[in-house]
Fold these 3 entries.
Entry 1:
Amino acid sequence: MNRFHKLLLTTFGLIALELLFALFFPFLRTVMLLLLAVEAFALILLPILKNKENKSREAVREKLYDGKTIQLDHGIVRYKLSGDGNSPVLIMINGFPMPLDIWERNAPDLAKNYRVLQFDLWGFGGSDTASVRCDADLYGDQIIQLVHKLKLKGPFHLAAFSIGCTIAGRLAERSSEFKLGKIVLIGPVVRPMNISPYHWPIIGEYLTCLFIGQAMLNIFGGNFFYKKGLEKFRGLFFGQLQVKGFRKAWLSCYRNLFPAASPHIYKALAEHGTPVMILSGREDRIVSLDDSRLLQRELGWPLTLVENGGHSVQFECPEQVNAEIDQFLKEDAVCLNR
């Protein structure tokens, strides 16, 4: 039982107790009913008071997020494209709920040898919130549309982070649309996550309204082993909370992407013959290192554990991570998607 289940049980338990008092103790009925009315009013008012979404995505883009924008089927996408146009393309897929700036210490260095594409997933950073469910298929469509619109040519290498690794894995199933090269998985989420009670209609929306701020604090704090040099990224990360539609994207992604994580996605990737390397921070406190070791053991993919790195190891240990990525991508591949 997680803390949200305990909170719900406590809340409904108190309400049930007050109803029993009102039912069996007539002299307390008026007091209990008034108390219930006040509690009901407070429960209704809390999400309104906690709501920080007061700015349009366009206004926040102009104020916080640099880079370019492009129109795709579900709205505007923020992206950055760096490196020589003739170099191999490397696409960076963010984790949840990260803006593309999580790669800000990697892209400039890797752009010396690759055409590096960073972008914000639908609903996060400077990209609009899609009106449809946020799942791996939606984000796969976003990547395919983006490379076509930018006229980039494959094979496309991928550097995927956290739950973004699920998106990368699913892209291997779309070889007719997307010419895949090599994949680097950073802190991959391998097993499905229990998101209860967020999957419950209405309850999930209500809890998101109440706890999204605290959840963002927990995610930010848990991603980094060292808590230094984060001031700029902190502003970009928490700036998302003021964007209208952010909570909707958060909950939709949480409901549809995290439960879809599965070892079967990675097994299919291995059967596809795609060269894969895994990088994880030894001090990862978000995703268990057992996930990465499972892929290493079952699929034979090389795993590098980076000392003194947390979940966002590419941000904390960029020199080693960049060198590992560059070396892996330059190695001769036994089998690439053709």
Note: The mean pLDDT is 91.
Entry 2:
Amino acid sequence: MTSPSVLDLVSAPSRAAPESGIVEIVNYGRQVEGLVKLWVGEGDLPTPAFIADAATRGLAAGETFYTWQRGIPPLRKALAQYHTKMLGRPFEPDRFFVTVGGMHAIIVAVRMIVEDGDEVIVPGPAWPNVPAAIELAGGTVKLLPMDYRPEGWTLDLERLEAMAAAPRAKAILVNSPANPTGWTADKETLAAILSIARKHGLWILADEVYGRFVPAGERAASFHDVAEDGERILYVNTFSKNWAMTGWRLGWLEAPPELGQVIENLVQYSTSGVPSFLQHGGIAAIEHGDSFLAYQIERAKRGQAILEAALSESNRVSYAKPGGGFYLFPTIDGIDDTRVLAKRLVDEAGVGVAPGTSFGPGGERFFRLCCARNEGEIRTAAERLADWLRRL
């Protein structure tokens, strides 16, 4: 009798969890000398010293024990003050829960509202981690393809309304500014989405991670601008993008205070909390990180402008100018499989990109470029891409 493979003994949802198409390309090109790597969603700046020093002081002070499951009180207070400053109205600390990065915030939120067979509407192309988290929780992803035109990506609100009326519909994911497309909802669109959610009794999972990376102004429109107290909205955010802290795994979930004990329990049974010394770095980022964030935003704008100029030289390239975030998501006429394209660009152009196939249906013809890199690297990548396109 043949023994079953150990792989056959693990749960079906675990086996079905998709491999990352981005990681596939990273592994493919990892050892290529001189490659300009624009494939992952992070900048190339290390965490500023004032943030690292705050965490180091916490570590030196012996903050190495189990800690508050909801986050240390000083960080929750700092998060409330940050939102008060950004949104112009008071927020209380009991709305904020510290998580192990934005991804953990998503997992906690999904676990809290999604049961087996529940449907979550996800406009796409979309960052693949969120659909995977929904499916691992037993939910069903209902993809709502967005409409692409060079003038911009658009969300079909009539189709959203029809999907929201389904018997098993439970939530709508709204990532704005969006990764990878750069689609950024205005207040009117957010109000329309909220109206649909209210009508059908749905939750909104608001991923506003890139909300500070906008072409003008301090922030993108937020559901906070149109929602009332007590709405069924869970807000996901992170320290990663704003303050160059991707490796820290430090984020937060904002939710109605009534959910506090539920969230605490889910944190307890997943991570048992974020190391308290790391949370002191988060306090420093919020309280002293405005100038660094402004520098990062301007740097990403310059990178985007350089890449746009290079891509615009070719009449075969099309893209929608992003309304926020720090990515470009172009398409090349005649190329339909960007998984293959990404490998060609590694081999033939010396540039690493994220294939649009990684972002689900609707993304297959596109590829993502991260603009949040140093200007020298961006210019090299732009020159290489322009040259490759001329030879195509």
Note: Residues 290-311 form the longest helix (22 residues).
Entry 3:
Amino acid sequence: MDENNKTELPIVQLQYLHRADPEAFYQVASDPDVVKFFDQFRELSKEQILQTLPIINEHPAYCQYWGIYVDNQALIGFIALKKSHDAFKALEHEKTKLPGYVPDINALAEAIDKPNLTDAREKALSPYTVDIALLKDYRGKGYALAAFKTVAVYCAKAGINELYFEVRPDNTSSLKLMSTVGAELLIPAEIEVWPAIYRLPIKFKPPTTEQVHERLRQLQGTPEVSGYNDWRRMVKDVPELAPHDELMTDLFTAVHAKGVRVEFCIRRPDCHLDRTRYEKVLTVGLANRDDPLSIIWSIAHEYGHACQEFPTENETVLFSQAKYERETDAWNKGEQWLKNKIYYCHNWPSFIHLSHQRLNKYLP
């Protein structure tokens, strides 16, 4: 996104759309220009449109809608973050045009033999796209950009590194937005009613020194201040954690609440909880990892151990069933803590892959 764009934007608030007033939602969803560009509301009766509202955010890992509100709490539009199977298929088709392209024979065979399985996998792997709808009186006045910037911050905290846009050539407002945010045109539109596809990397601007000090002042005297300082210590060696200050503050605060002292080691790549009858010490390894953000999962796993009772003798025996079950329980407890966090919502397969990989090491 172009950080040099200093135009002052209007103030908007985003709230999950399923909580919106039904009549206000219908006014936006039935707007002729919105219907023109949003297939999901086309040719639906008022009753059918209103029936979509309570379930519109039912699967947040695939699709989330936020209502866009102004100061008087009037709903002026909505913005959606959703996986697009159409974009996935268009991007995959572009790959076939590259020199030296070799098709995946196994994937082709699966598509023939098990089309439903292929379809489900493709939808899960589809990229996130952004759709924005505004009432006519609020278009071209910066409201869409203001809403998008808020969602871009959400994406950074959710670990979504790039966004895509499907824009029809006759959607002049969206084309202007693409220019403003600096989105890259990947696939031009072949016909007027078929969208072009744009891509935009998500760049997170770390907090300034003044913002960090202000946050410390806000947390002073609370249990969270130690967790926030732990995040500050980590981000020096793992800059990828910069967008995740809230998540890491909460996680370390939960660790401290279990009576655990936290230390850091730049030479080790793993995390480990040492415990005696008298104290618990979590050593967080800051050495390079293939996936730097997997350190979140590792700390959550050690939090799971901190929730457990002192291990029995059998639970300390390597390759024993008791040891394996204790490790499994720690991963489960860590996952339970993570489940309401947006980063887990959008990256849970990464957690599962790492937990299974680590658990396999405890099998003989």
Note: The chain has two domains: 13-84+127-201, 209-360.
